[in-house]
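Entry 12.
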Amino acid sequence: MRKRHRVTKAVVPAVALVVLASGTASATPPEYQSLDGSGNNRAHPEWGVAGSAYLRVAGARYADGLGVPVSGPNARRISNRIFNDTGQRLVSPRGMTQWTATWGQFLDHTFGLRKDGTEIQPIPFDPADPLERFPRATGLPVRRSATVPGSGPRQQVNLLDSYLDAFAVYGGTAERLEWLREGPVDGDLGNNGARLLLPGGMLPRRDERGDKNSAPGMDDPIGLDGRAAVAGDHRANENIGLLSVQNLFAREHNRIVDRLPRTLPEETKFQIARRVVIATQQYITYEEFLPSLGVRLAPYRGYNPQVNPTVGNEFATVGYRAHSMLNGDLRFKTEASHYSQAQLDALRAKGLTVTVTGGLAEIKVPSEVATFNPDLVTQLQLGPVLQGLGAYPQSASDEQIGDLVRNIVLRRGDQMAVFDIGAIDIERGRDHGMPTYQQLRQAYGLAPKASFSAVTGEATETFPADPELTPGAEIEDPDALDFVRLFDAAGNPVPPGGDTAVKGERRTTLAARLKALYGDVNTLEAFPGLVSEKPVPGSEFGELQLAIWKKQFEAMRDGDRFFYGNDPSLAAIKVLFGIDFRQNLGDVIARNTDVARGQLAANVFRIP
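Predicted 3D structure (tokens):
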């Protein structure tokens, strides 16, 4: 028989909580955030709830007005000519670190997860394409998103709630949360401990409680089986950077619990710690992450119950798809004293590149080793990984996507497919009825662009004259993507193949290639157009992406009754227990690892 969970409300962080020195609590009924976002807005308790439809800023764009995707150029063909970086990485000219993509993914796993449907929308590969590296590939079968029942035009489902509520740490169901907490798994959260289960200071594996089959499900495409780490979100094992952040905030929860009086009930301590962890993640996001990216929000005016925080379809499908920032590998720099010689040799044996110079260990983890490898986080140690994410620059936010996510070969028997996240982003836009680039700019209050060169900020959208090519054939020429000049942040020329280039000039302009594919700027699709915009000065993003992020993050802030700027219980927690949510990410790392604060940048999102 299935166990039924009883969720007690003998809990805290409410406006009036607080346990007095005598150990008695205030008479005001306590309130705390639900796991699925329900009840955050009292007048509209369904706003932002897990399992509801994404909001739309612009009208849905379908061929039949209801759900048939609008056709366009083949998505893989676009990817090979627009997103293809040809192996030359460009890094952030503003010195954003690898923490950018890591924190961005951690946030994504807090508020966004589309629901898969059953319809297949394949992306065919053309074996005759001169720019196709995998002519034997059969294509990529992409599953369309599930539809909200009865919706017309077609609406898609977000399985997570739309609040920054540390979902990735605690999960969205009582069943998962009970398994993650210390104590029995018997259907009663009321007899669980306040601490999260962290054997050896790391997230538990699925076989930690004996029966791996009764553990919460985790994404596991390579057969980790019982050795997959368990967290609030089932995608935690996707890469070692993400899994390290999951471990970090589970440790932070337990650190807070350990600072609370032992006389407090376990559930009270759990809810205080959860409340502080939520507020800390919000604080890092709004006070450190977004400003570092150059995303400037309107001043906070307090909670507004008229603001619907629900994640927008345009934000989830177009604006938040910053896949160009993903590096082909993860790189770390830390004190060599963290490791013995035997440990360094063991890391090399696993395929990592390890260089020790002057007391510092520089470690490069190739992509094939960095994914779905929870054991590697333990072997590298949590502190050095978290420290190392801030030691190297992040890939630039632009239209170029590396092979890490653009050319992943998938084989089944004699069949071969290629996973291409850029092509999928385009196809997903069609599936979700995204407006054109021009329509999306209009929806966010921006003026249209008159030409492709106006989109990219380049001087021309014409291919250079080439007597060996007939007019119109330039888009088929693999040499069109060659980099002819590369420059570092100071404007100095740099040789190809290195990691210091922040700007590159190719044989053909991006605008010319976009025009050859789309013909008319008014038919340019939203995602290719957005990533092709020149960054706004002082920001990583172009004008449209900035507008989309600004609107969504303001809504998630202003429409959240539990946002840290609106919750007086946080001040009460600080007065009573000396625990303050106002920490930057470097503070959280130093308090939960053996890396000293002085060994981290003041802002770990930026290269010092």
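Annotation: The longest strand covers residues 116-123. The mean pLDDT is 92.
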